[in-house]
Structures are given as C-alpha cells and as structure tokens.
UniProtKB/TrEMBL annotation:
The chain crosses the membrane at residues 101-119, 131-151, 196-213, 259-280, 292-312, 333-351, 371-389, 401-423, 450-473, 516-540, 560-580. Residues 38-67 have a biased composition (Basic and acidic residues). SUPFAM superfamilies: alpha/beta-Hydrolases. The keyword Membrane applies. InterPro entries: AB_hydrolase_fold. Keywords: Membrane, Transmembrane, Transmembrane helix. The keyword Transmembrane helix applies. This is Lipase family protein. It comes from the Bacteria. Residues 30-82, 775-798 are annotated as: Disordered. Residues 787-798 have a biased composition (Low complexity).
C-alpha cells in the first residue's frame, strides 16, 4: 500500500518504558520501503511522493497495544518487545527522476558550493570566517560569468559574427543564409549588430532557464520550515551551526544570490552585444550620437556589475533563525533592471551601420583571460584565509591541512573551463566543416585563451596517470602486507590463497577513500599552474600554441601541435561524455542510480555560494526527521533509536542537532557504514570536526557506530568518550565466516558497505541502546500536547 493513514489512534496505551521506535534512514542510492522494513506490504504514515515515513500494516497502530502485549511477530529484545520499525525514504529527492541527471551540467556550481562548507573550524565568527564565505561567493559569481560568456562565444562570436560573416561557412550551413551579408544580398538581418542582437536571445534564454530552475527547485525541495526552537534551545550555546534554527532554511540568501547571478548573466549578454557596437562607433564608424549613447550604455553596464558585486559581497548566511525575510527593492529589482539594459543594448546594436563588417574574432580573449586571472587570484587569497583559520584551531585529520576549500574551488573553476572550452571547441569544429578552426580554415575559431587552456589538458592527464599508477602499486603492496592479518582474523580452518587475497584486496581498496586529499590536491595544484601558464602564453603571444611555437625546433613545434590537438579533443570529449551520461540516465535505471549517488553526496549542503547549484535535499529531509522525532517522543514519551546507514547517518546526526536538548536526551543514535568522520569530519571540519562530534555524543548520550575494514565509505567516528561507553564498536568481521560452516554452508559474501543489518552485532547494539535510554515523562493525551499541537502516530504535525 502507498497511502497516508487518516484515522488518528486514540493514544498510546503501552507504558513509556516499554514503547520504543526505530526510525530507519537509508543511505546513498536509495531503496524501497519494502526492502527497509523487510515486508512487501507497507503503509505510508506521513509524507508525500518525494519523501515519506512508512510502516508495516500491523505496526500502523502499534502504540495502541495494551500494556504487556507483544507485537504480532512476538519478537523481543532484552526482555522487552522489539521496537516498532519505521522507514524514512528520501531517495526521490535526488535519484528518483531521470530528468535530474541533466543536473550534471550544473556540476561546477555544485562543486564551488561544497567549497563554502569546507572552511576550517573556528571558535568564533571572525572577519576571516566572513571573508572566506565572501571569496567563495565571488568565485561562484565568476562561474556564472564564465558559463554565460561561453554561451555568448558560441552564439554571438562563432555563429553570428564569424560563420555568418564568412561566405564559405554560411553557405555550408544554409540556416544562416538569411543573416549572411553575401547570401542574403545585404538583407536587414545581415548587419553585424543585428546578427548579434538576434543571436543574443540564446544565452539570454539560458540565463532565464537557470533562474527558473533555481526558483522552482527552491519551492519543491528547500521550502520546508524547520522545527521551531523552544526557550531551552534559545539559551543553549551550540558547538555547531547545524543546531541553529535557520541552518536548513536560508531562503533570503538564495533569493539574493539568485537575483545577483541572474542580473550578472543578463549584463554579460548585454555587454557582449552593446560593447561590440560601441567599439565600432568609438572608432569613428558611426554618428556622434551613437558614440555618446554607446558610452552611456557602457557606463550603465559598469554600474550594473558594481551593484551585482555589492549584493554578492554584502552579506552571507544568517543561521540564528529561519531567514524568510525579503530583501530590499534594489535587490529584487536587479534582474529586471539588467533585463532592461539588455533590451536597450539590443536596440542600440540594431541601429543601422552599413559600413560595419565582421572580421576576426570578438574580444573574447580579454574576457576569458580576465576571468581566469580573477579566479586564480581568488583561489590564492582563499588559500591564505583558510591557512590562517587552520592555524587558529588546528585539527590534525583535516583534509589538505585546511586547504580543501581552495583546492575544490580550483576544481570548480577547472570544470567550468572544461565545459565552456569544450562547447566552444566542438561548435567551432562543427561550423568549420572539415577544417580546423584557427589554422587557415573558414573561421578564426574560439579565443586563443581557450586553445591554450586545452593544450594543458594532456599534461594534467599525464600527471594524474602517474598518480593513479602510484596508488595502484601502493594498494598492491598493502594487499600483500594484509594477508597475515587475514590469517589472524580467521584462525580456524584451512586458508585458500584466492579467498585470502580477495579479503585483503577489498580491505586495501577500501583505504583508497583516504587518498582523496592527495588526488584533489595534485589535481588542483597542476590545474592552477597550467592555468597560469596558459594565461601567460595567451597574453604574451596572442597566438595559439602551435603558431607561437613556429620557428622553434621541430620537437617543440610538433609537441605544441600535438598538445593543442589532443587538448582540443580531450576537452570536447569530456563535455560530450558529461552530456551523454545525462541522456543515458533517462533510459538506464542503473545509470540513473549512479548519477543519483553523486547528488546524494554533493547536494547535502544548502546553496550558500551559488544559487544555480542543484537543490539541497537535506533542507527537506532534515526538517522531516526532526519533526518526526520531536512529535513522536512528545506525544508518546517512548524511547527512539534513529538508525542511519551511510548518508542516512549524516541526515540522522543533522536532525538530532535540530532537536531541543530535552528531546535529544530521549533519542539514541545508531550509525553504520557512516562517513561522518572519514569524509565529512575531514573535509567539513567546521561542522563535523572532532569538537562537534564530541558535542553530539555528549548531548544525545547514547550513540553507537558500526563499521568494517572492507567498507570504502564508512569508518569510525573517533569520538573521545571519556569515562563513558565507547561510540565505535571494533570493526565487524567481513565476511562473517572465512569458509563453509554449519551455520553458513555456502561461502559468505564480502559485504563491504552494504547489509549491516545482516550482522548479529546490529540487533545486539540496538538492544543495548534501548536499554540505556531513560524512560521519558508520561505522554500527554492526544490533543493536549506541548504548545497545544494536536498530533498522532498516524499523522505528524510536521
């Protein structure tokens, strides 16, 4: 069944010390309620088609059972009835729809948004903290400008300016005949300004689409109100911002950034059209009046960009409360003003200029070169700020010594460059027919800066190949060194060489996750150096690498030509693979699930640096979980174990932080296959570092974590429990048995990251957590709960 129950039960009858609930939260990739509850029949208790809570039919009214009555199955744990299983399914928030695979095209925006949350931990909100956030937001703004500039390069420069202005190219593409000066006999659309005005509709439509998607996804995914704080929570000083009431509801910042980035995109299109015409008028090619109008237009565009910068730099996130206020009229009117400037630019460029001919390229080299320079400078300054923050509160396990944010920002800029360069290169090749753009063919081709960037791709790939070989050799050595440990872990029975190597190899490959900082650091470092070299080469020579190397030794000239050709194809191939992966996800469920996993990890964090990033599913999932836990414990007074696997453990921890201190003490946390410390603690130390995880353990009191050495994602949480019970259980045996046994006559599989509940240790730890939870106060009668909120087991007040 997949229906919401309407009838509210009369109220809990079982004593609070016997009533227990296990709230299951699945991990990446998603699953079904039937699989989570081990029952093909499930009933939706509360929620909708995107995310909901499910139970077995016999457990729908489990709170109404008379005291002492066992559940239908009669299962008990530790002398008490076993907890009521309840499944929270959130997979449709990320990987449930094939169309969301096209969010791969927003990958650079998602990556730079991750960099915002990788800030090193700081005990106070200092100027360095605010400066870090501002620098990442500026880096996100450059990505919007880069994407829009790439769209303008394709539509305006390559198509409307170069190809349509060249007889051979326009003749090859008949759909350009009506705008070609020679093929249309100098028709109305044949003048360069009018061609540019017509072509500018494509990048303007792209900006409008991004604005629409950002606004629509906010309403669908991120508009869930968080749990309202009580007086006790207001007086508490939390160890992490995840406990703040407004952390999962940043509507005002998203709206402000959406207005600024939309205006920036429209202003970029207006500048590409208007400044081209103004440059011709300034050179004496038109009437004086047009020259004056062009200068006024350029001044208005400069003022518009200044306002965009002011809005982006002005203020970051406000997490003390749910920030649902609206910005001032100036911010709200910014996109409309930019649209008006774009319309004026189109009218200005469409003015008749009979003597204007399109020759060479539009000034894209300056635009792309300036963006590369600004991005590199932002990354360097961001690295300095991150280093200062790390020195103030050093944590040894932080990835890249606190420089993870700058490194990931560099990767986001590199991804943006690959995508923009790939589109420009492939469109240039297509328009140029059999020729190679820039080498004596029909059209000059893309800007020189993009060609220099492409030439560095083979060098980067060679460096990564060397790194991969190094990691492969080290993994092989670890496998050999781990064979004696396998023998010690499984001392009984004869040992098989193949089985032993398989177990040792799985363990050593699982440790590759811990090498991610090395991979990210090497890639970011090489990208920064190659970007600087490409910028210097493009501005120093003004020519593509192959032409700049002419006159040198044959080896140097040939190497430049090979690097340029390979880089052009690699950069185009990368973009084509990205698009085809999105298309494949429409038809292939397994591909759709794989791509969904990327978003499960990458879109956990709210949109704080870029409004066009894929939406944050946690802004819906975390309020769902916190509302459910708070209302159930308040109305029943029972004990609750929230059981999270993989990414579900991160959602569970975030939801526990949103509870009031009194509610946290009624909740136990069971995590397994959890990346809380291994990934989130190392890469996001300000929010999941040792201090915050220790505070969570102190607040909820009951927490147990299960992990395996064969798990490539989960690991220990490394919380210092002091005199209390340890959080981490020793690594579980995987496989459960080395060979065939009486209980396992067939070979036991190596489970790795999956099926933790199949291990007997899972039920044992759950029973111990329930036994440690203290009975709550007597539950209020339905309709008279705290704060006058009428709740029930069947329908949550959330």
């Amino acid at each position: 069944m997949d229906r919401a129950t309407e009838a509210a039960p009369p109220g809990p009858s079982a004593p609070a010390e016997e009533l227990a609930l296990e709230l299951l939260v699945h991990g990446v990739g998603g699953t079904t309620p039937a699989e989570m509850l081990d029952d093909p029949r499930t009933v939706r208790i509360t929620g909708d088609e995107r995310a909901a809570v499910y139970r077995r039919p016999e457990d729908v009214h489990a709170e109404d059972r008379p005291p002492g009555e066992a559940p239908p199955e009669g299962a008990e744990e530790g002398g008490r009835p076993r907890p009521i299983p309840e499944a929270y399914v959130w997979s449709n928030l990320t990987s449930g729809n094939g169309s969301r695979a096209l969010w791969l095209l927003l990958l650079p925006f998602m990556v730079v948004n991750l960099a915002h949350w990788m800030r090193p931990s700081s005990r106070h909100r200092s100027r360095a903290v605010r400066g870090y956030g501002m620098l990442v937001r500026l880096a996100g703004l450059t990505l919007t400008l880069l994407l829009t500039a790439a769209a303008c390069e394709v539509a305006l420069d390559l198509t409307a300016w170069q190809c349509a202005g060249t007889r051979a190219c326009a003749a090859e593409h008949s759909w350009l005949g009506f705008v070609s000066p020679e093929l249309s006999d100098r028709g109305w659309w044949s003048q360069p300004g009018r061609r540019l005005a017509l072509a500018s509709l494509a990048p303007a439509a792209l900006v409008a689409l991004l604005w629409f998607l950002s606004r629509r996804t906010w309403s669908a995914y991120e508009s869930a109100l968080p749990l309202p704080p009580d007086a006790e929570a207001k007086e508490e000083t939390s160890a992490t911002a995840l406990a703040e009431p407004g952390f999962w509801y940043g509507r005002r910042l998203v709206a402000r950034l959406r207005a600024a980035h939309t205006a920036a995109g429209l202003l970029t299109v207006a500048a590409a059209v208007g400044t081209s015409a103004a440059r011709f008028d300034r050179q004496g090619g038109g009437p004086v009046l047009l020259d004056v109008l062009g200068r006024i237009l350029e001044g208005a565009l400069a003022l518009g960009f200044a306002l965009v910068l002011w809005v982006v730099c002005r203020r970051g996130r406000s997490e003390r409360r749910a920030d649902d206020r609206r910005d001032g009229r100036l911010v709200r009117a910014l996109p409309a003003a930019a649209l008006a400037l774009l319309a004026l630019s189109l009218l200005y460029a469409s003015w008749s200029r009979p003597h204007w001919d399109s020759e060479g390229r539009l000034p894209g080299d300056f635009t792309f070169g300036s963006l590369v320079l600004v991005q590199g400078a932002l990354v360097v300054v961001l690295g300095v700020v991150a280093y200062v923050l790390q020195r103030r509160a050093p944590e040894s396990r932080t990835a890249l010594g606190g420089l993870g944010g700058p490194a990931v920002t560099m990767l986001a800029c590199a991804l943006g460059g690959v995508m923009s360069g790939g589109v420009a290169q492939r469109v240039g090749d297509w328009l140029d027919g059999a020729g190679t753009p820039g080498q004596g063919s029909w059209i000059p081709g893309p800007p020189v800066m993009l060609t220099w960037q492409a030439s560095g791709i083979p060098v980067l790939l060679l460096a990564l190949l060397v790194l991969f070989v190094f990691l492969a050799v080290r993994t092989t050595r670890r496998t050999r060194a781990g064979i004696p440990r396998v023998h010690r872990d499984y001392p009984d029975g004869p040992h098989d060489t193949i089985r032993t190597r398989r177990i040792a190899g799985t363990r050593s490959r699982a440790r590759l996750t811990d090498e991610a900082p090395l991979l990210v650091g090497v890639t970011a470092g090489f990208t920064l150096l190659l970007g600087a070299a490409a910028l210097a080469g493009a501005w120093a020579t003004g020519e593509v690498p192959a032409e700049a190397a002419r006159g040198e030794a044959d080896f140097v000239s040939g190497g430049a030509q090979v690097a340029q050709a390979l880089g052009s194809w690699f950069i185009g191939l990368g973009f084509v693979l990205l698009v085809t992966s999105g298309r494949r996800a429409y038809r292939d469920a397994s591909a759709r699930r794989t791509i969904g996993i990327l978003w499960d990890v990458g879109t956990f964090w709210p949109r704080a640096a870029h409004p066009f990033a894929p939406p944050c599913y946690a802004e819906r999932a975390v309020p769902d979980l916190s509302w459910r836990m708070a209302t159930w414990t308040r109305t029943t007074g029972g004990r609750l174990v929230i059981s999270g696997h993989s990414q579900g453990s991160v959602l569970a921890a975030a939801a526990a932080w949103q509870l009031s201190p009194r509610a946290r003490r009624r909740v136990a946390l069971l995590t397994y296959g959890s990346p809380l410390e291994r990934l989130y603690g190392r890469w996001f130390p300000a929010h999941f570092g040792p201090r915050t995880l220790h505070a969570l353990h102190r607040d909820i009191d009951c927490w147990r974590n299960l992990h395996r050495d064969t798990d490539p994602i989960g690991g220990p949480v490394r919380v210092d429990a002091g005199e209390g019970p340890e959080v981490d259980r020793p690594p579980l045996r995987d496989p459960l048995a080395y060979g065939r046994t009486q209980l396992l006559p067939l070979p036991a599989p190596i489970l790795g990251h999956s099926e933790y509940q199949a291990d007997p240790a899972f039920a044992e730890e759950r029973a111990l957590l329930l036994a440690r939870l203290r009975p709550a106060v007597p539950a209020p009668r339905p309709g008279t709960g705290e704060e006058g909120t009428q709740t029930s087991t069947g329908t949550s007040s959330g």
